[in-house]
Amino acid sequence: MDSGALNDLDHRLLEALQLDGRAPFSHLARQLDLSERTVARRYQRLRGLGLRIVGQPDPARLGLVRWLLRLHCTPDAAGTIAEALARRPDTSWVTLASGGTELYCAVNTRTADERNALLLQKLPRTPHVLSVSAHCMMRIFVGATSTWHATRFRPATPAALAVDSGTPRTPLALDDTDRTLFTELARHGRATLPELSKATGRSPSSVQRHLDRLRTEGALHLSVDFDPQLLGYHMSTQLWLNVAPAHLRTVGETLATHPAIAFAAAITGTSNLVASGVFRSPADLYDYIDRQIGPLPGIQSIETAPTLREVKRLAPALP
Fold first, then answer.
1. How far apart are CA 279 and CA 156, in angstroms?
2. Could you give the domains of the chain?
3. C-alpha distance from residue 210 to each of 61, 81, 181, 265 (Å)
4. pLDDT tens for residues 150-189?
5. Is Transcription regulation tagged as a keyword (predicted)?
6. How far is CA 303 from CA 95, 156, 160, 268, 274, in A?
7. 206 contact partners, CB below 8 Å, separation of at least 6
8. How far apart are CA 157 and CA 150, in angstroms?
9. Which strand (E) or helix (H) includes residue 252?
10. What's the pLDDT band for 146 if we cut at 50, 70, 90?
């Protein structure tokens, strides 16, 4: 199915869900000036096309450190290695790029032992892995994941995008109810209060209090996942930028306002800023680099790596 099958109402509904993935149909109906029945019918149609609302934990808010791994593998093994990484509960997304020999993977670790077990033991001993570079995400400017939020016009800082303020905060303590909510919302972010009440063994009012706390404290975000190709965007690309330190914050915060950019973070390594973008075509990508990236101050180099396949997406490592 192509983007022409989606009309203006579908786009508006996606935009509204991006602002609040758990908004009741009655609220969405008032916002869109439609009947509740029409909104529900359109929502179910979009779900049939692959729409997912996914509850995701914020790694930093829960005391986790996020790493971006960049692996070069032999062509015959990259897919198998990507699939193995996707099965790990501590990975949140895995993509294949650059002719199928390079893959990217986001990993959340709580302790140095967890980090070292993967980076110093598991991966170096994996056959057909030619090189591994690990980049600590120092600050995430936009996007809890590298998945594009499928709307035509993306607000600069919707709740789902989890922009990092850069201010250190004490990790939020979780109880059994919180952990169960994370598990259930990772499956379906719009699970009803009765469904969550049954899963947790708590009353609906207690569940609502836990949800309000997790969202207010920035520990839980609702992400909207929809295939960009259905909206006419056929080119996903990883951008690796080397930015002069004096301009790193400015460039990162500027990228966070660009609708094409799903994810941008300051990282350790030779390239100190990485971003994921979604574009309609190679010409669209060229125009973006020429007109929006090029004029930014302090950019010393840029490397582009088109995504060939998303092996794992919006599958958060649960706390």
1. 18
2. 1-49 (1.10.10.10), 60-150+228-312 (3.30.70.3460)
3. 16, 38, 9, 29
4. 444 343 333 334 445 455 578 899 999 999 999 999 999 9
5. yes
6. 16, 24, 27, 16, 10
7. 177, 197, 200
8. 15
9. helix 248-255
10. very low
The dihedrals phi and psi of 132, each to the nearest 5 degrees, come to -135, 130
Structure tokens at 88: 């790990």
For 238, phi and psi rounded to 5 degrees? Answer: -95, 130
Mean of pLDDT values over 269-282 = 95
Q: At residue 286, does pLDDT exceed 50?
A: yes
How many residues does this entry show for the chain? 319
pTM: 0.83
Query: How many C-beta neighbours within 10 Å does residue 235 have?
Result: 17
Instruction: List pLDDT tens digits, range 61-81.
Output: 989 999 999 999 998 999 999
Residue found under tokens 């607000």: 155
DSSP designation for 295: T
Do residues 152 and 8 touch, judged by C-beta distance below 8 A?
A: no
Residue 6 has what pLDDT? 86
Beta strands in the chain (DSSP E): 52-57, 65-73, 91-97, 102-109, 129-142, 220-225, 235-243, 261-267, 273-279, 299-312
User: How far, CA to CA in Å, does 133 sit from each of 84, 90, 163, 268?
Assistant: 18, 17, 25, 10
End-to-end CA gap in the chain: 36
Provide the mean pLDDT of the chain: 88
* Residue 196 half-sphere exposure toward CB, CA atoms < 13 A: 29
Residue written as token pair 């892995």: 129
Distance CA(44)–CA(152), nearest Å, equals 20
